[in-house]
Specification:
This protein is an alpha+beta fold. It has 2 helices and 8 strands, in the order E-H-E-E-E-E-H-E-E-E. An 8-stranded mixed beta sheet has the order 2-3-4-1-5-8-7-6. The relative contact order is 0.18. The C terminus is likely disordered.
């Protein structure tokens, strides 16, 4: 199963969790400090809430969650055949999960799209301490040939 991911910046995580719990009739699938995600059955959606005071209501990033690494690879190959550049991340730790993923580069409006699968749960938000990351869930590689260095969701 694949599902669309929508990651939102929120001012107050508790308030946002209460709102989205009522809106979708579901409790968070995962809740950690400054972070919550919902695995909504209908419509098929992974809703991620990232506490970012002062940025509430803005888009953090978009994604497509796929069932396994083979599906990540297939999507990356499909997009490469269409001329899309990607920034590869394998066994990365972000959003309290170990993931295999890639970020689509050079989107027309600067939106950040990731294609990913969750490999395992993690007790940490990212491999880099949260305060040290340049920007959470950022798809900005240090060069066009390097993998993303500061993504976390």
């Amino acid at each position: 199963m694949s599902r669309l991911q929508l990651a939102l910046n929120v001012n107050d995580l508790d308030e946002s969790v209460a709102f989205y719990s009522r809106l979708f009739g579901a409790e968070p699938a995962k809740r950690r400090p400054g972070y919550a995600n919902f695995a909504v059955a209908q419509p098929p959606l992974k809703l991620v809430l990232i506490e970012n005071p002062g940025q509430g209501g803005s888009l953090n990033h978009l994604g497509v969650e796929v069932p396994d690494t083979d599906a990540v690879n297939a999507e990356q190959n499909r997009l490469a055949a269409h001329g899309f550049a990607t920034a590869d991340e394998r066994e990365s730790t972000c959003c309290y999960a170990k993931q295999d993923k890639f970020w689509v580069q050079n989107t027309p409006n600067g939106e950040q799209w990731e294609i990913y699968t969750v490999l395992a749960d993690s007790q940490t938000f990212s491999a880099v301490p949260r305060g040290e990351a340049v920007g959470c869930c950022s798809s900005t590689p240090t060069s066009s040939s390097q993998a993303v260095t500061d993504s976390c969701c």
